[in-house]
């Protein structure tokens, strides 16, 4: 059965072997293969089941795919479309192929012979294919995608966890007005070309509000937590006593010290939102109606999920009564008792759309070449709004994670339910392209967290260790086609976070398609493990020093991450070994900085000072590392706002939940003193020794 199980797994894109982070080949356990295949709707629990499934696959080998993606070539798209279709025709077999430009949107264009068209425009269309062997014509969705995205101008910009970037006007969490102000100030004063922020995805509408922006309730819609209350048009129309009451509430939130409190902020903002919405008296507004039409059923389902979550006191739909667990049931969506509350949540999304647009306008008006770059998380939790909206898209009993690697040697289970690749293909990848379009509508770019999501994901069976998962393949060409088409439509840049264990060939494919990778300085080494020289870095990349899963530069050079992981029991080898490796790696980078003339102090002197706990060289190290980034060919250089103000604490420690205050650390300086947006001073920031070109 082993060989047959292997073949069946390969039919469905399930890896039976993989190379770990050390380059060693690992065989996937048969129990893992059986569990993953079951999540894909394939019974492999017995030899007979495996043989039956193989027979069904062989019968479908020459079936036309539900979705076809082709790249526009120099000679147009008609030839590539026909060439791709011939892959599914038998020897000498012919077929009649017709195309409906736009796929029926707008209606009335109808089908026409494909061969009579000189070219096919970029975008989505529909094919009707008649083969002699088929009793009926087969309809195939077609995407004509750009061959590659054009490169953006060379630019640098801040990377920031927006919720931590507070001001003297925000309500205890950074918001969209703060984002607009940060972009405007850094663009005009510092010459920055972009601001990259964490995912602004929707959170739970009832407490507790999850702190992680990478584990959202929905990737399709943003979180009302980021609304600036006073910038909503309805606020100015409130009676004076209401405005005074809310101003006092906001002042109390701003006066809070310690960790960020999303529950308190959401409770305060929700009270303000409800007061403003009641004051509007559901007045007709053609712009609101147009927004609802544009967003369609997806908005209605999300808003209904919010309303039911409030009604049930929990946002995890798996804990709701059985009658409410299926969004497709008319009894759920058509219940008039929750229409008014759902309309309230639709209104919040409309106001978010306006403030997101205002932030991008502020960035471009300040001269930014790119503007706001939004982040797209890998997935959503099992009981989220997105899984409720269409559960058939998701694999049951599976979580997305990562195999063991250098920095997370136990592997990771992110508690997120993966999309089924076959379900995505059947639906023309609509969910993926819709969320990409939503993120790009008011942005100059998008960052794809864990870029491997367009090619393969690590699936972990429920109850298993993260180390006992396996990779499941997605149609890379189709997903990249969707992504680049949406980016071309909006004139945006796409950055993929291709760190960790990366599938062979993926980085080259991203480059060919004009999708940038990520070059993280601490990980950039040559074949001998030494720091990679600046001239050998990738041009098509976003170059940064660290990431949100690591401490800022100052904390890193002092080894704070090792002390933290040791205290939390996350090290898998002796602390002394970790510290020895850290000192060797850091010494190597100090040698490079000194040799490049970016750090005047001798590396040995700096290392001795760090060993003694001295902070004398901290600011010089930060500036030297930023200067080094500007010497690489990378077209985009990202400077963490936390690094610029001297922060030492990490925002997230992988492998922890409550053991560390992940995603709740406000922006502060090296002494832990909060830094507000108004406190930012170009002369005091640790940026560059001279302005980058």
UniProtKB/TrEMBL annotation:
A Pfam family annotated for this UniProt entry: Glyco_hydro_77
Gene Ontology process terms (BP): carbohydrate metabolic process
Source domain of life: Bacteria
Enzyme kind, highest EC tier: transferase
InterPro entries: GH (IPR017853), Glyco_hydro_77 (IPR003385)
SUPFAM superfamilies tied to this protein: (Trans)glycosidases
Keyword annotations: Carbohydrate metabolism, Glycosyltransferase, Transferase
A Gene Ontology molecular function term of the record: 4-alpha-glucanotransferase activity
EC identifiers of the protein: 2.4.1.25
Catalytic activity: Transfers a segment of a (1->4)-alpha-D-glucan to a new position in an acceptor, which may be glucose or a (1->4)-alpha-D-glucan
Chain ranges passing through the membrane: none
PANTHER family named in the record: 4-ALPHA-GLUCANOTRANSFERASE DPE1, CHLOROPLASTIC/AMYLOPLASTIC (PTHR32438), 4-ALPHA-GLUCANOTRANSFERASE DPE1, CHLOROPLASTIC_AMYLOPLASTIC (PTHR32438:SF5)
Family: Belongs to the disproportionating enzyme family.
NCBIfam families to which the protein is assigned, alphabetical: malQ (TIGR00217)
The protein, known as: 4-alpha-glucanotransferase
């Amino acid at each position: 059965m082993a060989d047959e199980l292997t073949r069946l797994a390969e039919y469905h894109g399930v890896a039976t072997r993989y190379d770990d982070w050390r380059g060693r080949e690992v065989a996937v356990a048969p129990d893992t293969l059986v569990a993953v295949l079951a999540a894909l709707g394939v019974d492999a629990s017995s030899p007979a089941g495996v043989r039956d499934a193989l027979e069904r696959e062989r019968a479908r080998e020459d079936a036309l795919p539900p979705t076809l993606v082709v790249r526009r070539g120099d000679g147009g798209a008609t030839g590539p479309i026909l060439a791709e279709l011939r892959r599914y025709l038998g020897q000498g077999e012919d077929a009649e192929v017709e195309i409906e430009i736009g796929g029926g949107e707008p209606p009335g264009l109808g089908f026409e012979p494909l061969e009579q068209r000189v070219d096919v425009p970029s975008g989505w269309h529909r094919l009707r294919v008649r083969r002699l062997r088929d009793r009926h014509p087969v309809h195939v969705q077609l995407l004509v995608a750009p061959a590659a995205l054009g490169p953006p101008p060379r630019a640098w910009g801040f990377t920031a966890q927006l919720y931590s970037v507070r001001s003297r006007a925000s309500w205890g969490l950074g918001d969209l007005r703060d984002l607009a102000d940060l972009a405007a100030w850094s663009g005009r004063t510092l010459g920055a070309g972009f601001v990259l922020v964490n995912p602004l995805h929707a959170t739970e509408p009832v407490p507790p509000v999850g702190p992680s922006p990478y584990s959202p309730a929905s990737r399709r819609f943003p979180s009302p937590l980021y609304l600036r209350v006073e910038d909503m048009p309805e606020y100015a129309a409130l009676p004076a006593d209401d405005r005074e009451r809310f101003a006092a509430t906001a002042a109390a939130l701003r006066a809070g010290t310690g960790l960020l409190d999303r529950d308190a902020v959401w409770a305060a903002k929700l009270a303000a939102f409800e007061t403003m919405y009641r004051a509007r008296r559901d007045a007709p507004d053609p712009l609101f109606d147009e927004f609802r039409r544009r967003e369609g059923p997806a908005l209605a389902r999300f808003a209904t999920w919010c309303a039911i979550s409030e009604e049930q006191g929990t946002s995890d739909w798996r804990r709701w009564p059985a009658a409410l667990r299926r969004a497709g049931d008319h009894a759920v969506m058509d219940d008039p008792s929750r229409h008014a509350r759902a309309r309230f949540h639709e209104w919040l999304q409309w106001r978010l759309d306006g403030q997101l647009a205002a932030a991008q306008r502020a960035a471009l008006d300040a001269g930014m070449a790119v503007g706001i770059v939004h982040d797209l998380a890998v997935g959503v939790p099992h009981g989220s709004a997105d899984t409720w909206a269409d559960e058939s898209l998701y694999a049951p009993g599976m979580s997305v994670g990562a195999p063991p690697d250098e920095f997370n040697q136990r592997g990771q289970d992110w508690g997120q339910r993966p999309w089924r690749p076959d379900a995505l293909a059947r639906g023309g990848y609509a969910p993926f392209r819709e969320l990409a379009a939503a993120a790009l509508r008011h942005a100059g770019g998008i960052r794809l967290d864990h870029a491997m999501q367009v090619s393969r994901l690590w699936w972990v069976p429920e109850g298993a260790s993260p180390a006992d998962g396996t990779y499941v393949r997605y149609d890379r060409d189709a997903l990249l086609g969707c992504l680049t088409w949406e980016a071309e439509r909006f004139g945006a840049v796409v950055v993929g976070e291709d760190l960790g264990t990366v599938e062979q060939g993926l980085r080259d494919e991203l480059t060919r398609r004009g999708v940038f990778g990520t070059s993280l300085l601490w990980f950039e080494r040559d074949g001998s493990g030494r720091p990679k020289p600046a001239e050998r870095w990738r041009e098509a990349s976003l170059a940064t020093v660290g990431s949100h899963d690591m401490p800022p530069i100052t904390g890193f050079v002092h080894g704070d991450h090792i002390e933290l992981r040791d205290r939390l029991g996350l090290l898998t080898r002796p602390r002394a070994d970790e510290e020895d490796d850290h000192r060797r790696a850091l010494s190597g980078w100090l040698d490079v900085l000194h040799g490049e003339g970016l750090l005047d102090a001798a590396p040995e002197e700096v290392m001795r000072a760090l060993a003694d706990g001295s902070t004398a060289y901290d600011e010089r190290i930060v500036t030297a590392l930023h200067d080094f980034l500007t010497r690489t060919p990378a077209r985009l250089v990202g400077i963490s706002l936390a690094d610029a103000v001297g922060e030492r604490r990490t925002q997230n420690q992988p492998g922890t939940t409550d053991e560390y205050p992940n995603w709740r650390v406000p922006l502060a300086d090296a002494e832990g003193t909060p830094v507000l947006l108004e406190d930012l001073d170009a002369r005091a920031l640790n940026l560059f020794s001279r302005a980058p070109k």
